[in-house]
Amino acid sequence: MAVGSPMSLLVVGYQKDMLDKMVEWKNAGIVSLVGVLDSSSNQPYQDIPIFNSADPLDEQEIDIILIVGNEETFHKEIENWRKNNKLILSAKTLWVLDRVAMQKREIQILTGKQKFYQTILMHSHEGVQYVDSKGIIRFINPSFSRITNVSSEERLGKHIEDVSPNGSLNKAYKTRTPVFGYKSSSVGSNVETVANAAPIFVDGKFIGAVATFQDVTEIKYLTEKLMEHEQEQKVINQQSSDGYESKFSIDHIIGESEEIKEPVSLAKRASRTRSTVLITGESGTGKELFAHAIHTESKNHDKPFVTVNCAAIPEELLESELFGYEKGAFTNAIKQKVGKFELANGGTLFLDEIGEMSLALQVKLLRVLQYREFERVGGLKKVHVDFRIIAATNADLEKLISEGKFREDLYYRLNVIRLEVPPLRKRKKDIQLLVQDLMDKIAERIGLNPMQLTNKGMSMLCEYEWPGNIRELENVLERLMNESSASVISDSLVLKHIQSLIGVTSSQDEVDSITYPSDNSLLPLKEVEKEYIRKTLNHYGHSLESKKKAAHSLGISISTLYNKIRDYHLE
Ligand SMILES: Nc1ncnc2c1ncn2[C@@H]1O[C@H](COP(=O)(O)OP(=O)(O)OP(=O)(O)O)[C@@H](O)[C@H]1O
Asked: Which pLDDT value is given to residue 525?
């Protein structure tokens, strides 16, 4: 009898109910029926052959003889079969066969289930690997080979310790505890996988361990792409919502003197390229105006123009302001912040007061300028950027280098196109044009009718040296326009303001609505300045907005005010 094939059965005697049962077993694959041996019957039962004598039967082909009829008729044959150790059953001992049939049925059911589950495992998209209680690999599915590039021949029969000592399966096998979300990369195929593994116990007995895993390379790639897109979108949203755009063009730069024509034509040439520009010049001469104009004239004018005032932002915040930070980078980083470098991508980054940047940050800036990439604070991923740098300073960078306060290598990186904005005293010729232009703008801004100066008033303004340059001129004009009751500003009012600027204070000076110390004339100039700034700050307040107003009122830039606050320890 071949293993797994049904036992062949010969029925001795014709008994219909018994034959019904045999047919049932036959159909269930439990027995195969050789036939019925019965001398009196020759009626075939369904398709079962009927034999009247045992002559045509081959004994070798019979496993079991079931006697349900008269034993005497075939006495001789039965004796012979008994001698040859054939299994002879009667109706009374048929339960043996019944039991066999039952077990066979159970085996069939289990085999069916096994096939069912095996088919699922074979078709699973996840890789599956199983080791027995001795750690020998007994099963891998096709997905395992697909993902890892390791064939079943290479794996089956090997000990897990020998082929994958650090994998999740060996961990679960050795520790007899489950392993979840175990990340690794397959050596054979270079793919990233995430696995879960578990020991298997049956009735409390350890019988092996199984691991299932997925190829997450694509998921990882798609997740990264998605995050990149989200980040880009975030940057775009911020760029457009925060109004990072240049506000002035070359036409806003007033002046016809040779001294101003030269930087203007250099600015026009610079706007045709993406080269770095270093703008130098005294405070209030128009460096920021030039930076805006260069961007506006460039072909990237519709891209962001992002200003960073290196003096106005506290040192400890400047890094995160420039580089941005990842969520959780430090205690207050409750969400990710996009830095100015990223915001300026594609456009211009204007670094005002670059001379105020700390040496530590200069090193980092230099690296960004060299490699055009950086990492956010608390982040590992490289962010690529492409922007043009325009830097401005009223400090003497060469002097700062000699004092060890500014890096020479950064200086050479920035000093590609050098644009020097001349102070007002070197282009007095432009003052008249500027005064007219500024008065028109101020009138519009503060809601007054256009105003004028007399020739004498104008020449008084032209003669003054304007240490605070155009911003100072602008502030004085605004005060004059506010104080004048006529549309033509009186010469005496102009004189009074000029006198107050050069220190010959008249008793009714408008700015002195803030009281000086009674003996201010005896104080050194710096002390007076410190006291004056302190009172102005007290008057306006200490918020950023208040400081802007205070700087405006003092006729200095916000960064100069910050410098003075720091130098005089006013905060
Ligand atoms: N040539 C010019 N024509 C018209 N307005 C000008 C000109 N130059 C400067 N201004 C005006 O003067 C004021 C100061 O200019 P700006 O802020 O650009 O100077 P700055 O050199 O950057 O100053 P700081 O060094 O203090 O930052 C601004 O209101 C600006 O519009």
From this structure: 64
Ligand 1 atom at minimal distance to the Cα of residue 248: 31
Atom number of ligand 1 nearest to Cα 473: 12
Q: 536: which residues sit within 8 A by CB, 6+ positions away?
A: 514, 550, 553, 554
ipTM at complex level: 0.97
Q: 251, 283, 444, 470: which to mutate for ligand 1, most atoms within 8 A of CB?
A: 470
Distance CA 419, CA 287 (A): 9
Cβ–ligand 1 contact at 560 (below 6 Å): yes
Q: Rounded CA gap, 118 and 468, in Å? A: 86
329 vs 338: CA distance, rounded Å: 13
φ/ψ (deg, to 5) at 169: -65, -45
* Residue 292, pLDDT above cutoff 50: yes
Confirm if 183 and 166 have CB atoms less than 8 A apart: no
User: Does the CB atom of residue 283 touch ligand 1 within 6 A?
Assistant: yes
Domain 125-215 has CATH 3.40.605.10: no
pLDDT tens track for 494-520:
988 888 877 643 333 433 443 333 444
427 CB-near residues (< 8 Å, 6+ apart):
255, 257, 259, 260
For 425-567, give the CATH class: mainly alpha
The top-level CATH class assigned to 226-420 is: alpha beta
Please identify, by atom number, the ligand 1 atom nearest to the C-alpha of residue 394: 25
How many A from CA of 404 to the centre of ligand 1?
Answer: 29
Closest atom, ligand 1, to C-alpha of 291: 18
The answer to whether the predicted template modeling score (pTM) of the entire model surpasses 0.80 is: no
Provide CATH code, domain 7-104: 3.40.50.720
CA distance 125 to 521: 89
The rounded Å distance from CA 403 to ligand 1 centre is: 28
* Residue 292 in contact with ligand 1 by CB distance below 6 A: no
